[in-house]
Amino acid sequence: MSVRDIIVGEESSVLRQPAAPVTRFDDELARLVDDLFDTML
Fold this sequence. Notes:
Oligomer: single chain
Number of helices: 1
Shape: flat
Structural class: mainly alpha
């Protein structure tokens, strides 16, 4: 079961936008990484 929505179609253009550099790896970012990993399973 996906934890996060998977972006497809017209919405996928957001994936081509540059992201801000990561300056610290806090609990919120760790939770996002865990959610994305669970979504890929």
